[in-house]
Amino acid sequence: MGNSSIRGWCKDVLLPKDVESTKGLADGFIIEALLRQSYRDLTLQMELGNRFLGFRNDMRALTDKLHQTEEALREEQAKQLRMVEVHNAELLRVTRQWEDERDKAATIAVTSVEDYKKSAAFEADVQAAVEARSKEVAKAWLATPEGDDFLLDLGERDYRLGFREAQTEIYTTLLARDSSFTPEGWGLKPVLDAEGPAALTAPATLPVATPPALTESSPQAEDPSSVPPTGQSVGAQVEGVAVDTPSPIA
To answer: Are the CB atoms for 134 and 213 separated by under 8 Å?
Structure first.
């Protein structure tokens, strides 16, 4: 006891502090304690090994599941990509169809408008619209005494201007044939004043618009010569004038 090989083995195996605790023990107790410690160590190693195998199996299962999830994700992404491609292709087809129909409708509309402008119906519609608008404007002016007076003065002014143009044309022709021609010498009226009455002003209470040209005119406005001058008529005097050589005035 104390000098067997067990002591030397304890020095090689145990820690210094554990060797000191075995000095007062018999070899049998030392061997039993060592066996128990070895059993516990072996049991711990087996448990750790089993747990390591379990962890490794779990990691493999988790890795397989992760691979399966990634594969499913890739398949889903590919499916979504195919759906997007199909959707884009359908959208492009519908867009092109809509654009073709739009262009066709625009072409038909332009052609229809051009044909309509060239047709007699367009001229009739325009004429009807102008007449309707002219009647509306005329009714608006004739609805008040001020407007009625204004249109009357305007008609008189237009008549005087037309009569003056006719006088000027006739007198110019006669003067070209006879340089000594004068309206008074022929018993004609002098050329009317272009201004005539005072300048016309539209009443403030009437609509501000350019008076429309009335479709009906007086016979005197259509034929200025219908106003009979005093003395010999202009037609009789013109008939007596030769075309090539001016005739002397009596």
So the answer is: yes
